[in-house]
Amino acid sequence: MRTNFSKSDKIFDYVNYALLTMLMIVTLYPFLNTLAISFNDAKDSIRGGIYLWPREWSLDNYKYVLSEKSIYNATIISILRTVIGTVVTVFCSAMVAYAISRQDFILRKFVTIAFILTMYINGGLIPNFLLIRDLNLLDSFWVYILPGLIGVFNLIIIRSFIDGLPESILESARIDGAGDYRTFFSIVLPLCVPVLATVALFSGVFQWNSWFDVFLYNSSTIELSTLQYELQKILQNSNASMTQRTAGDVFAGGGLQNQGTVTPTAIRATMTIVASVPIIMVYPFLQKYFVKGMMVGGVKG
């Protein structure tokens, strides 16, 4: 069957394709530019003018970053933190979301408001540190997991999804004699796979990129350092080294010609690629669930 398109339809398609192509370029350009700088010679990068392709190919930036022995143990800690933290956070948030979504839960509105208030009211940095210290979580791996056990934003998303589930399914389970635990594990969790995958992606990205809590609570324990924190230290050392070299070269009359093989700009680009690749590799597996989960509440059965 042949479909005839009018001239206005063709114009609309061309404009739509052009806009989507421009959007794709604007979205991909920062990443491709960072990738090009990371593979370009650091000295040459100072000149600028690098866009989508390295001008002088070099692996020195990656050799410099990956030469730090502590980065490998930090990568393992980051993976463990991301996997364990994501699984525990998603599971606990889903359980609480199911509880406050129950119509027969008398305190559901009070508990919901209490959770939401924590998004706007915070005790501050010092009270949080004192709380972590009193809980004996300093210099402990569990300081990465327990404080974020329940994500309020994730809780609201999951609860909204559960509210959109057909009530008849839950009523049928109760009529068949299923208790709350059986209903949650056998019915609610399988139906919530899209939103759970979305929340898992949010939580995983947060856990993977987090470094400030390492600085606050585990900075003295190198065995519990994470990849992001080690990369941050490498960047700081690179900045300090470049400042010292620049001052020495200027004092000696050499200008900027005697700088080392790496620069903070090149190291920053390399760190971005190293830290982003694992998340980029995981995202395609969650993409189809992510799209469904972002449509929470859009269509209710």
UniProtKB/TrEMBL annotation:
CDD domains: TM_PBP2. One of its GO terms (biological process) is transmembrane transport. Keywords: Cell membrane, Membrane, Transmembrane, Transmembrane helix, Transport. It is a multi-pass membrane protein. InterPro entries: MetI-like, MetI-like_sf. The chain crosses the membrane at residues 12-32, 71-98, 110-129, 141-162, 183-206, 266-286. Its main location: membrane. One of its GO terms (cellular component) is plasma membrane. Residues 75-283 form the ABC transmembrane type-1 domain. It comes from the Bacteria. It is found in: Cell membrane. Belongs to the binding-protein-dependent transport system permease family. This is Sugar ABC transporter permease. It comes from Paenibacillus montaniterrae.
